[in-house]
Amino acid sequence: MTAPESTSAPAHFIRTRIAREFEAGLHQRVVTRFPPEPNGYLHIGHAKSIVLNFAMPDEFGGYTNLRFDDTNPVREEQRFIDSIKEDVKWLGYRWENECYASDYFETLYGYALSLIDNGLAYVDEQDAETIRAQRGTLTEPGTDSPCRNRPSAESRRLFEGMRAGEFPDGAMVLRARIDMAAPNINLRDPVLYRIRREHHHRTGDDWCIYPSYDFAHGQSDAIEHITHSLCTLEFEDHRPLYDWLIEHLPVPSRPVQIEFARLNMDFTVMSKRRLTRLVDEGHVHGWDDPRMPTIAGLRRRGFTPESIRSFCTEIGVTKSESIIPFGVLERNLRDDLNARAHRRMAVLRPLKVVLSNFPEGETEWIEAANHPQDPEQGSRRLPLTREIYIERDDFMEDAPKKFFRLKPDGEVRLRNAFIIRCQEVIKDDEGTVVELRCTFDPETRSGQPGSNRKVKGTIHWVSAAHAIRAEVRLYDRLFNVPHPAGDRDADFLEHLNPESLEVLRDARLEPGLAPAKVGSYFQFERLGYFVPDVDTAPESPVFNRAVTLRDTWARLEKELAGR
RNA sequence: UGGGGGAUCGUCUAGUGGUAGGACUACGGACUCUGACUCCGUCAGCGGGGGUUCGAAUCCCUCUCCCCCAGCCA
Q1: Active site residues of A
Q2: The motif 'KMSKS' region: which residues (predicted)?
Q3: pTM score, two decimals?
Q4: Counting CB atoms within 10 angstroms of each CB, which of A180, A280, A305, A421 has the fewest?
């Protein structure tokens, strides 16, 4: 089961390969799995994997399992399981089976025994350091452990003893008996089981031995009859081990592992270790901080599942590593929301404007479309009064010729309403503009015959008397360098952008925005896409800016400033 | 100086012997009661060198650069 809309499916090497396999009659269906370790929150990189893993069965027939790779109890927690399930669902996907590697511990244990009985695994009583030393180096072969040739019956007794809790943590491990001289280090008798007295979030204290990733993953795939085990590039040189185990174990199916490049994005970090540090050291306000690249963070920021899915489809699937500009994700959000977000007016940094020829105490109701290109999305009525607020940025006393907004003696249209002319600029003692006196032209009301008079600029506004106050949070990139994790000379935290969050506490919104609920989204015209934050409350609304509108003026302005 | 991968417009990505294509960005223009959207147009690429071939991004040789692997993490 997958998300409703089927995004266009460009050919990529995995899709092409599966299609060929189908043509050759190798499969009747595709079964994949999304296998997170429950030791952190899902991020946009996981989304790429999720979209891929659900898309293949969706296209070819089959299904996807959600499998928690919970073989290391020291790092895993139930709360992460909960968040992962929530995030996958929110992205729009429904898994066929909810699986846990820990459900297979007994089966896996049996597989280990069979390996031992066949002389393909042995218990090694050396400590970790010795084993490491014997592994050799990238250029030198390893040396055999003295335990390597012990009788399999002895290994079996020891391994059974390991399970029975007869030995302390770290006293011994189970190792595959492959080849200590293999050029691929993963084949130099890799560790299959270790003793670890640690409470497991699902199996409790039933086990004191836990399988390693290599021993658990492929066999779990086989148990679930996964046809294609899709993973990232760093597991590429584990594939010979993956295949070796499948080949030598009495598993019920023979999955194949296919690797693809993980997602990297600029101006952020993606590794769980670094994300965990950001959270634990308080650089952000939790895993769902809107500046985080986590699914929870993006959701809170205002990203839609559709935008994340289309992004993941757009970037493609290859084996070459790449870094996707964050702006690509943002554009997918804009494209999605542009089509369906209702337009609203909100003033982030208010500047009072008095319409001197507007009758005092009167309210004029203005009809405003919810969407400029789609009348079916309806309209709402806006109050216009003598005192309004406009955006501070929309007025300039010494404006450059290309500035199309309000300036002394200049004209501008109030969006959905009248053309106004700036007659007077009022400043405080320090010279700061605090108020504008303008006149409005009653003939130019939107929709009236006289409204076709053209002025160069249109600005948004709210009625001072009706507007609701709100807190608005503006987000910028979390880091101020494109590759914060790529600096060998500095900790990535040194590249944190101190201005990644800007809180505006005096924004004014059109009154209809008051009851907006979390999960709704709007375009604040001329500003960007905004959503109510989870902190929002009826009497104290809080909005997040998910993304700005594309802003050609900002670029022009920067250019003008540059010369 | 082991093994495994990867190099195609600025970015991402198609293209396994027959005119290197798309998307994004950028730039220019049209439109505009959002400097948004939309539309039109332009710029721009096969890591280097050799070879095979009528013809090479694609096949061969060679060089260079980048990533991953020496956890009882995944």
Answers
A1: 37, 262, 272
A2: 269-273
A3: 0.96
A4: A280
